[in-house]
Amino acid sequence: MATLQPILQVADVDAATAFYRDVLGFSVNLTVPNGSGKTVHAELSRNGAALMFGPATGLSEAARSLLGAGLTLYITDNDVDIDAFCEQVRAAGARIAEPIQDQFWGDRTFTVRDPDGYHLTFAKNVRPFDPALMP
Q1: Total of domains in the chain
Q2: Which of 25, 52, 91, 97 is the most buried (most CB within 10 A)?
């Protein structure tokens, strides 16, 4: 069995870790400090979804401003009350990039934009796919 665990480059590993832990409910599995004590790697998970953070070092200012551009992580969790979870993360301070809504493919989704510009779409399957509902 293969797994996919993205490594996201972030401006500040500790700040990203705190956002994912405190706002999105991820568990922190591991943090790695460098010789001076600054966190340079973190591994987090939430109900089977896992990701890692690393510092966006060695990038130009222009490249750093584009962190997260063009990347959306799609996290399906059929064990969660998706509406309650959306309200929970909104109340915790998440920026909702796309409101909660039913999709034609059968998922109910909402999208959060994290402080580094990455988009996370949280989804729960609520009905089978119906081609007749395609736009």
Answers
A1: 1
A2: 52
Over residues 5-22, the pLDDT tens digits come to: 999 999 999 999 999 999
CATH of the domain at 23: 3.10.180.10
Q: What is the pTM of this model?
A: 0.91
Report which of 74, 63, 68 is spatially closest to residue 125, judged by C-alpha positions. Answer: 74
- Segment 39-73, tens digit of pLDDT: 999 999 999 999 999 998 877 888 877 888 889 99
